[in-house]
Amino acid sequence: MEKKTYNVAVVGASGAVGEELFRVLDEVSFPVGSILPLASARSVGEEVECQGKSYKIEELTEDVFQGKEIDIAFFSAGGSISEKYAQYAVDAGAVVIDNTSHFRMDTDVPLVVPEVNPEDIEWWEERGIIANPNCSTIQMVQLLKPLHDLYGITRVDVSTYQAVSGAGKEGMEELVRQMQDFFAFKLSESECKAFTHQIALNVIPHIDVPQENGYTKEEMKMVNETAKIMGTEFPLSATCVRVPVLRSHSEAITIHFTEGVHVDVEKSREVLDAFENVTVIDDMSKNEYPMPIISTDTDETYVGRIRKDIYADNILHIWGVADQVRVGAATNAVRIAQKWIKLKENA
Ligand code: A2P
Question: Which residues carry out catalysis (predicted)?
Fold first, then answer.
């Protein structure tokens, strides 16, 4: 008989995304059998709570998955950890839902945003791994998909305003510490570890490793992952910028549609608002538009400032905002797991 509850491992249980995963599993009443929270030796013995029960963090080792009958293993401890340990979870019988960039572009690993390409989960068995896309990519493709279906996208240009949570707990703590140092008149002595420069009262046009083509790895993730998720080949250019916001990313997106299309702003609003997990906030007469203070701690992707280009009829400009830790990581991973369960139970 088909199992009705699922044993879940969380690798990176003490991290920003790991902690959020427990909250999301709780909120969606995920059919949890048991939880195996894993982190480095530093966190062993710390307690995590999920669905009213507490569990002690264990150390991630090569054989920790053995004999535990784990069904789903969420990995969120960095690419090198996924590279080294994901296969052990798969060998022990789990599906790995990986939040790092390590497997994303492998042709035998589905890269999934459940609202956009849920059908790709069907080939999860090729490797036993499903990849969770980059946070900036997830919230962007949720907005591109309904507009692509409506008008056919031919090019996208995006500038991001990315929160410090993208650099994990260390990034969030660094912003808070630097702000405290600012008010203590010692910002100039404050340590810059998580980012290349001071992030408090600053913006940094540099996220992830610089590439030979002049872009950064984060920018190229947006280019390559969008094509894989949407199955499209339109050109996309990204400028990724770190801003002193705690945990929601914002994006200014310019979308070019097929030559000859006359964009209807009202119709665009309608299809965006009707799309699963997308909410339109767009009334300039009342100063209403998406902002990080609205999206933080929610599972929605918000869009506003929807307006036609001044010069061309087939170009639309929009502004999207979503919680990076949730929509960009934990919630997307849990939504993948929910779809995976449905697939298994209908098999
Ligand atoms: P730990 O807290 O024990 O170092 P964040 O993205 O917020 O920085 O979190 C990173 C997560 O990855 C943490 O849970 C961290 O655990 C975990 N992690 C980092 N290095 C390792 C490792 N070598 N083995 C297992 N987990 C690790």
Answer: 135, 249
